[in-house]
Design brief:
The chain has 6 helices and 5 strands, in the order βββααααααββ. The chain is of the alpha+beta class and 175 residues long. Strands 3-2-1-4-5 form a 5-stranded antiparallel β-sheet, with helices on one face. Helix 1 crosses helix 6.
Length: 175
Amino acid sequence: LPREFTAKFVASVEDGVSKVEVFVDGQILGGKLNDNSYVEDGYRFHDIFHMTCVALLGWSPVVRALLKRKRKSDKETDEVEDGGRAIVTDEALAAVVFSYAVRHRYLDEIKVLDWQLLDLCHELASPFEVGKRSLYEWEQTILKTFEIWRKVQTHSGGWVRFHRKSRSVDFSVVE
C-alpha cells in the first residue's frame, strides 16, 4: 500500500441521484458510487473508511484491490490477506461502522465509542494482519473517518490526504 496518497472526492447528481467519484493520483478509483439506500445518507463517501484504515491501521484489502496492489508474488498472502474473504470483511466493517455512525449523528462531538462496536471490529478483522491492532487504534480510525467524512459530506467532496508514516488524514476543499 502507498505510504501516502491523496484522494479527490467529486460529488455530482445524475437523474436526481447523488453520486461520488473518487480519484487517486488523477486515476479514477472504481466506479461512481451512490448511497444505495431509500434515503440519502452519504454512504457514497464510505471509501473514506477504507482509506483511513490504510493510513491509520495499514490495512484495507478493498483499497489494495482498487489500486491493483494485491500481493500476487505470495500465493497464500494474496489468497488470505488480499482475497475475497478479506475484501468482504473490509466492506462489512464499513457497513457496520456506518450504521453505528448514522445512529449517533455521524459521530459528531463523540469522543468515545461503544466497546461492543470496537470489539466487533476487532473480532471480524482478527483472522487478518490487522487483527494485531488494538481497540484503541480501531476507535481512533473510526473517529477520524467520520471527522473527515463529515467535512467531505458538508463540502460535497474535497481533497483528502492519507499519510501512513505520520498516521494522519487531512481534508481540504476542492477549489
